[in-house]
Design goal:
The chain has 204 residues and is α/β, with parallel strands linked by helices. It has five helices and nine strands; from the N terminus they run ββαβαβαββαβαββ. The chain has one domain: Rossmann fold (3-Layer(aba) Sandwich), CATH 3.40.50.
């Protein structure tokens, strides 16, 4: 397998740097490196997912949230910071990305976040989460990103919600269809610049 951001242990030479990002309503600083997803800036899809989730959930007063494929942490960190009544868990297979996420959690002084190194595809989930979010690793292939959806179904409580961001050109229509098949429902929350925000709710 070639070395890419979905690798367990990236072999590419380190090129550590710091970037800044305005996410939803606040500025953040993130350490990034080679061998991780979107190292030069927080990608538009992640930004759109953060903005939509926070906008639609301002009244949350408790809950458990899981991010599948947390990377160096921008989604989990921004949501945990701006919706502090949530307890957030970020799961990431790439140990380099996870190390950066832990540094970024400290850098941005976020305390209601746990970070776990694990492979989403083979992890044994229990239905304990109210929300699952993912900007899935498209380069890992269709079978993997569909597995993210079925694993999210296992991780969610009844009436729990899965939020997915995906580009139209990278398979949003087929992802929408697969979420409908898996959950028996799907809603389009937003579309912007070719990115779709999709939501499914686990039935009772």
């Amino acid at each position: 397998m070639s070395d890419h951001y979905y690798s367990h242990q990236p072999q590419s030479d380190h090129n550590e740097r710091y970037i800044e990002a305005f996410l939803s309503s606040k500025n953040y600083q993130f350490a990034t490196d080679s061998g991780v997803f979107s190292k030069g800036k927080v990608d538009f899809g992640s930004r759109l997912l953060i903005e939509n989730f926070i906008k639609h959930n301002q009244s949350i007063n408790s809950g458990q949230l899981l991010e599948l494929g947390a990377g160096y942490g921008p989604i989990s960190i921004a949501i945990a910071d701006q919706l502090q009544s949530l307890q957030v868990v970020g799961m990431e297979v790439n140990e380099r990305a996870l190390g950066l996420a832990k540094e970024n959690m400290r850098l941005n002084q976020v305390t209601n976040l746990d970070l776990i190194q694990a492979d989403v595809v083979i992890h044994n989930f229990k239905p304990v989460y109210d929300y699952v979010l993912t900007n899935p690793p498209i380069r890992a292939g269709k079978a993997v990103i569909q597995k993210f959806v079925t694993q999210a179904y296992q991780a969610l409580k009844e009436e729990g919600k899965l939020w997915v961001v995906i580009q139209k050109k990278q398979g949003a229509p087929s992802m929408k269809k697969f979420m409908e098949e898996t959950f028996n429902n799907v809603n389009e929350i937003d579309r912007s610049k070719g990115y779709w925000i999709l939501q499914s709710i686990k039935p009772l």
